Amino acid sequence: MPLKLPDKLPAIELLKKENIFVMDTTRATGQDIRPLRIAILNLMPLKITTETDFVRILSNTPLQVELELMKLRSHTSKNTPVEHMMAFYRDFELMRKEKYDGLIVTGAPLEQMDFEQVNYWDELTQVFDWAYHNVQSTCYICWAAQAALYHFHGVPKYPTEKKVFGVFEHRVLQPQLPIFRGFDDIFYAPHSRHSEVRREDIEQHPELTIVSESKDAGVHIVMARDGRDFFITGHSEYAPLTLDGEYWRDVNKGLTIDIPKNYYPGDDPKQAPIVRWRSAANLLFSNWLNYYVYQTTPYDINQID
CATH number of the domain that 35 lies in? Predict the structure, then answer.
């Protein structure tokens, strides 16, 4: 089954060109199925790009998913048209009395700031606390993973000497977990960040389990509450050219930036990048939707607690 999306969301036409099947609200209402309610709190600057990335990755499942886009009142996007935000996003305050089968909180380019310095930190932590009781399973991505680990468990983040930038090899540490069904022992995932969380801090919290890591990129996926919380430090949802766009953006600004590792053939930025992470990314999110959302969420969504 495809994703159920708001009518006229730009991602629909973009993904149809990629031969990915998505369904708008008008067509989906004709099916007698309770779709999974998945919310995305999109903190990335380029909202439409991030929407499209997640719609693409969530569409690879037989489950029908009703996607809702969340925004914070305390933060105004500077890079997305106001008309788009008004048409497709709802304020958290209007959603907090509802329950959701799943929630994804995206990353944000804020790794070099203290959490409390972020102007929407108070409202963001309200979302975290709401999700703890009103969402069956939540995926926190990149900076959001660091923020949620800090908020719930006091795990600090540290600046990295250089930007962790590229596509890195990862190991599965808990192969028996459903989140890794179908995974190879070694898989790839993109990273793009200036900070990290460290194994030694996480290991001080028995309620946290590191389930995936990378020799070069460090801790990758941390699980809590038997899969009701996943903290993912990478960007498996990235499209093939996302790292390319980030690299040339910084080059054109005159910033010092290394070529993303394991990305361009021969480390030549003029070459088309090699996509190594697509299959693992699809497995990661389809396993999350199936085993940690669909298989565990109550049919009566109001029973989630």
Answer: 3.40.50.880
Catalytic residue from among 68, 111, 237, 246: 237
Among 139, 142, 170, 196, which one carries the catalytic annotation? 142
**Residue-wise burial string across 82-99, b where 16 or more C-beta atoms lie within 10 A, e elsewhere:** eebbeebbeebeebeeeb
pLDDT tens digits along 214-230? 999 999 999 999 999 99
Domain annotation covers residue 42: yes
142 is catalytic: yes
pLDDT in tens, 258-270: 999 999 999 999 9
* Cα distance between residue 101 and residue 285, in whole Å: 14
* Residue pair 195/146 in contact by the 8 Å Cβ criterion: yes
- Whether residue 235 lies in the annotated active site: yes
Q: Which of 170, 191, 220, 235 is catalytic?
A: 235
Predicted pLDDT of residue 10: 72
Cα 113 to its chain centre, rounded Å, is: 20
R_g (Cα) of the chain, nearest Å: 18
Overall number of domains in the chain: 1
- The answer to whether 247 and 192 are in contact (CB under 8 A) is no
pLDDT in tens, 49-90: 999 999 989 987 888 899 999 999 988 888 788 899 889 999
Q: What is the pLDDT of residue 231?
A: 98
Domain span including residue 109:
3-240+275-303
Predicted local confidence at residue 299, as pLDDT: 86
Whether 252 is covered by a domain: the verdict is no
Backbone angles phi and psi of 26, in degrees to 5: -60, -45
**Token pair of 158, please?**
């540290």
User: CA dist 284 to 166, 190, 280, Å?
Assistant: 19, 13, 6
Reply yes or no on whether 237 is catalytic: yes
In-domain check, residue 283:
yes
Give a yes or no: residue 261 inside a domain.
Answer: no
List all residues 6 or more positions away from 9 whose beta carbon is below 8 Å from its beta carbon. Answer: 24, 51, 55, 88
